[in-house]
């Protein structure tokens, strides 16, 4: 009670459906509808954390298309971060930057692995 819902449990609108205004890639990865442009600064670090948890869990099964979609979702998250970053404490900004770097590292490692396997 009061904790963060597990990523495998979808969050839905009152009607029982996912809200259409959410980011489709984040909805698929996090099982909830998220309008990135409306995420308050206070929730952004948690959103990055859950995004990276999903990335770590699913990355081995991702195709190049999945990586591209996740990268696009991260780009949208990063745009929101740039909008609200001054509202975040320094520790939170550093945490976000580390998540951004980790994603790009995982993505680059996958690309390298794919090239080696060709």
Structure notes:
This protein is 63% helix and 0% strand. The N terminus is likely disordered. The protein has a domain of 79 residues. The N and C termini lie far apart (49 Å). It has 118 residues and is mainly α. It is globular.
Instruction: Give the amount of beta strand, in percent.
Output: under 5%
Q: What order do the helices and strands follow?
A: HHHH
Assembly category: single chain
Major sheet characteristics: none
**How much is the radius of gyration in Å?**
15 Å
Q: Which descriptors apply to this entry?
A:
118 residues; mainly alpha; 4 helices
Give a short summary of the structure.
Helix content is 63%, strand content 0%. The chain has 118 residues and is mainly alpha-helical.
């Amino acid at each position: 009670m009061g904790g963060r819902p597990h990523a495998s449990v979808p969050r839905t609108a009152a009607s029982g459906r996912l809200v259409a205004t959410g980011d489709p890639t984040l909805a698929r990865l996090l099982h909830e509808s998220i309008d990135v442009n409306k995420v308050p600064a206070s929730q952004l670090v948690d959103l990055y954390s859950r995004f990276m948890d999903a990335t770590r869990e699913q990355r081995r099964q991702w195709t190049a298309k999945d990586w591209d979609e996740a990268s696009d979702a991260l780009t949208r998250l990063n745009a929101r971060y740039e909008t609200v970053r001054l509202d975040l404490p320094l520790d939170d900004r550093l945490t976000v930057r580390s998540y951004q770097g980790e994603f790009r590292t995982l993505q680059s490692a996958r690309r390298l692995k794919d090239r080696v396997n060709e």
